[in-house]
């Protein structure tokens, strides 16, 4: 595995650094205007607004190493907020399995960040065991529409989204992985009701979505009826690699050290405390190990292999590390971290620490819970057979 960057890669790295520095958000700029300008400028760079899209659809066509550089540099330099559901999740499905009409109809608005999407996979009785989903779609007699009934849960930003991409059951006569269909629906229409779920940290980002006799034209089905499981599975592997957030953790760890160095402890700071230092060192060692795993998967991607079950290792360890950084940040904030949401007290960083920590509990659940990732690793990476 060669992790030395070539002269070309180094040139690309400084091009990215220059772009991010020249277009960084400044406090005097209106955030939403800056965000849209940023995407427009990134697009002019040759598809940097949609890094993962192929050149055929206007993406930059980067090598795996260039993607890695982009991840690292944007983790440091920052990019505008961008929900992954449209550009990162639905778009690859449409490019791979959608027809030309669907690609022309949906991709431009996804790219322009004009139309926002949410992901309707999980249901009250189908999370880890997603293939058990029961939301039903029945074809009308004239074959022109599906009528959808059922409930989705944990649907992130459903209350703000314009459209939802959904897995629904069109046939339950075969094994549960068959008979699942991939449908697209506008959110603002009769029969769709969104109910908020407030999470531990007090935030409203997830929802319950009820469907009652929702009429979906057959043109809004992606791919073949009953083949949705195949399309959804490919998406999950990309989702898992993204959630691992290793570059972001490297930056967050440096931030943690900086924060701990500002907290007085004895004659020095918290960063001089041997116990705290040991925890930070342990975290850093583990993070380094995961970074090397990521580099290994980068090397196999460079050799032309699509992300496989090893993306589960990255998801598993990457999300645990994000939780440990959040936990140590709370520890650094001490008692002040528990006063989150109240009148700010103590070091400035302490205020947001607890809410980030509580939000981080979900990292090992969504995109496939840790126990399930362990199953995937045991079976498909280590080749361990299930005992009878
Ligand atoms: C903040 C947040 C945002 C989310 N956003 C979305 C979204 O936008 N769209 C969407 O569709 N879904 C979303 N989800 C849902 C998420 O994908 C599911 O929560 C996840 O798949 C787990 O399913 P579950 O909650 O039903 O738990 P369950 O599957 O019921 O799991 C409960 C527990 O049992 C364990 N378990 C389950 N199966 C096994 C097994 N085979 N072996 C060992 N242990 C097992 C799990 O690890 C877990 O600890 C979100 C979830 C959260 C928390």
Structure write-up:
The chain is α+β, with helices and mostly antiparallel strands. It has 3 domains: 7-82, no CATH class; 91-105 and 114-227, Beta Barrel (Butyryl-CoA Dehydrogenase, subunit A, domain 2); 244-381, Butyryl-CoA Dehydrogenase, subunit A, domain 3, CATH 1.20.140.10. It has helices spanning 7-22, 31-44, 64-77, 85-97, 100-111, 228-243, 246-260, 274-302, 310-333, 350-360, 370-381, and strands at residues 117-120, 136-139, 145-153, 163-169, 180-186, 192-198, 204-217, 221-222, 264-265, 268-269. Strands 1-4-5-8 form a 4-stranded mixed beta sheet. A 4-stranded antiparallel beta sheet has the order 2-3-7-6, with no helix packed on it. It has a two-stranded antiparallel sheet with strand order 9-10. Strand 6 (192-198) and strand 7 (204-217) form a beta hairpin. It starts with 6 loop residues before the first helix and ends in a 7-residue tail after the last helix. The model has no long low-confidence stretch (mean pLDDT 92). The structure holds flavin-adenine dinucleotide (FAD). Flavin-adenine dinucleotide is lined by residues 118-122, 127-128, 154-156, 206, 362, 365-366, 369, 371-372, 375. Flavin-adenine dinucleotide binds at residues 118-122, 127-128, 154-156, 206, 362, 365-366, 369, 371-372, 375.
């Amino acid at each position: 595995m060669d992790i030395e960057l070539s002269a070309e890669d180094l040139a690309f790295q400084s091009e990215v650094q220059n772009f991010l520095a020249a277009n960084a958000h400044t406090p005097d700029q209106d955030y939403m205007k800056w965000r849209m300008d940023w995407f427009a400028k990134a697009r002019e760079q040759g598809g940097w607004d949609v890094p993962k899209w192929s050149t055929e659809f206007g993406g930059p066509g980067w090598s795996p190493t260039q993607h890695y550089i982009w991840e690292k540099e944007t983790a440091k330099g920052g990019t505008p907020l961008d929900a992954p559901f449209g550009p990162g999740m639905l778009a690859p499905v449409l490019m791979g399995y959608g027809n030309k009409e669907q690609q022309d109809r949906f991709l431009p608005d996804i790219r322009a960040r004009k139309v926002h999407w949410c992901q309707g996979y999980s249901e009250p009785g189908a999370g880890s065991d997603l293939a058990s989903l029961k939301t039903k779609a029945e074809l009308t007699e004239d074959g022109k529409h599906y009528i959808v009934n059922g409930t989705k849960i944990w649907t992130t930003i459903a209350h703000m989204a314009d459209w939802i991409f959904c897995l629904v059951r069109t046939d339950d006569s075969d094994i549960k992985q068959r008979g699942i269909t991939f449908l697209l629906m506008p959110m603002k229409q009769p029969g769709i009701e969104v109910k908020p779920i407030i999470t531990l940290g007090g935030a409203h980002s997830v929802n319950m979505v009820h469907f009652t006799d929702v009429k979906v034209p057959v043109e809004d089905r992606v791919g073949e009826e009953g083949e949705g499981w195949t399309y959804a599975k490919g998406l999950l592997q990309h989702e898992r690699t993204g959630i691992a957030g290793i570059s972001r953790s490297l930056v967050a760890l440096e931030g943690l050290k900086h924060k701990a160095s500002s907290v007085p402890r004895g004659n020095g700071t918290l960063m001089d405390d041997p116990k705290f230092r040991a925890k930070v060192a342990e975290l850093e060692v583990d993070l380094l190990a995961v970074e090397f795993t990521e580099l290994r998967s980068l090397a196999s991607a460079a050799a032309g292999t699509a992300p496989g079950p090893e993306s589960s290792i990255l998801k598993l360890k990457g999300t645990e590390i994000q939780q440990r950084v959040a936990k140590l940040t709370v520890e650094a904030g001490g008692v002040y971290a528990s006063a989150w949401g109240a009148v700010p007290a103590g070091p400035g960083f302490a205020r947001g620490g607890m809410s980030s920590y509580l939000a981080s509990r979900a990292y090992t659940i969504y995109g496939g819970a840790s126990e399930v990732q362990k199953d995937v690793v045991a079976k498909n990476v280590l080749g361990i057979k299930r005992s009878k």
